[in-house]
Amino acid sequence: MGSSAKRKKEKKKDFQKPKLKVGKAKPLAANATSTSFKAKAIVLSQKINADAPSPNTQFLHHVSLLSSRADSQRKESLAYLASTLDKGLRGKPVPMPTEALLDKAMPLILDANSGVRAELIKMLQALALSATDLGDHVTKMLPFVRAAMTHLSQDIRKTALDVLSWLLRKVGQDLVSSPGGWSKSLECCSTLLNWKNLAPNDTWTANKENQHDPGAYLPLWDHAHHQIPTKASAYGYLNLFGKPVDDDSRMLEDREERLLVFDDRFRPGFAKGIDGAKKEGGDIGRIAGQLSKTLEHALKED
User: So what does this one do (predicted)?
Assistant: First the structure.
């Protein structure tokens, strides 16, 4: 009797659900898989953005920031452009015309921030244009350079001279033969050096008559002037049938034409200014002496 009751109790136990106590975990099944192990994971330090702007888009964005009001932004954008151009855009062409880029960048030669102007020079040098390509853009660049040469700030004037020196080394012939490249540039140099009004007009009139003696142009002594011209439109500078033009904006393609303009308008002031600079001595006198020898050599070759 006792053993039968015991068996019934054990069978009934199989169909009873265990009562769980509050706060006590549910017992695991016999076939449960342990998930307590840890797996190694690859962690990216930077998120990958599928919508990241292309190098061309970034380049154009920084060009648009050149007109930013913040000095630091203009400087950083120029530095980015210089770095990108120096690397050659990884073999790809510049995503905008060079003329449009210079239109945005060249006004910064007048920027009051010295860091911006320094980055501008680096960007211009990083363009790595050939002499032919750079010569095509001299006419666009010179007005900004001349404006900086006559600026009130001495630092901006110095930056202008740095850019002018770079242009003369790269495309000197294109610069002096471009419209206004000779006359207007010399005018700015005279103003910069305070040599503009050093010589009176009456002194120059006597010198002019002595230097252009008609007897010097006889075929016996100067037959080259009477030969057949070797260039097209040899007398185009006379502008016999064209509209009146500004003398300062003329294209002076020949060396002889440029020397005549220098003699007529700038030589007396330069000569007197050089003599005064020689008397200063020191570095100024030394540089004035070198300039004097350069002018003498150029005039002897005429």
Answer: Component of the RIX1 complex required for processing of ITS2 sequences from 35S pre-rRNA.
Look at residues 126, 116, 118 and name the one whose alpha carbon lies nearest to residue 87: 126
Q: Give the whole-number percent of the chain exceeding pLDDT 90.
A: 25
Cβ within 8 Å of residue 60, ≥6 positions away: 95, 96
Distance, in Å, from the CA atom of 269 to the CA atom of 171, rounded to the nearest integer, reads 26
Helix segments in 26-113, DSSP class H: 55-64, 71-86, 98-105
Contact of 151 with 157, CB cutoff 8 Å = yes
> Which whole-number Å values give the CA distances from 193 to 196, 244, 282, 288, in the listed order?
8, 31, 17, 12
- pLDDT tens sequence across 36-81: 767 677 766 666 565 667 878 888 999 999 999 999 999 999 999 9
Q: At 270, list the tokens.
A: 């330069």
- d(CA 112, CA 71) in angstroms, rounded, equals 9
Cα–Cα distance for residue pair 124/102, rounded to 1 Å: 9
Enclosing H/E stretch for 191: helix 183-193
Q: How many Å apart are CA 252 and CA 265, to the nearest integer?
A: 15
Distances from the Cα of 200 to the Cα of 96, 193, 212, angstroms = 50, 17, 19
What single letter denotes the amino acid at residue 186?
L
Q: What is the DSSP string of 171-188?
A: HHHHHHHSTTTTHHHHHH
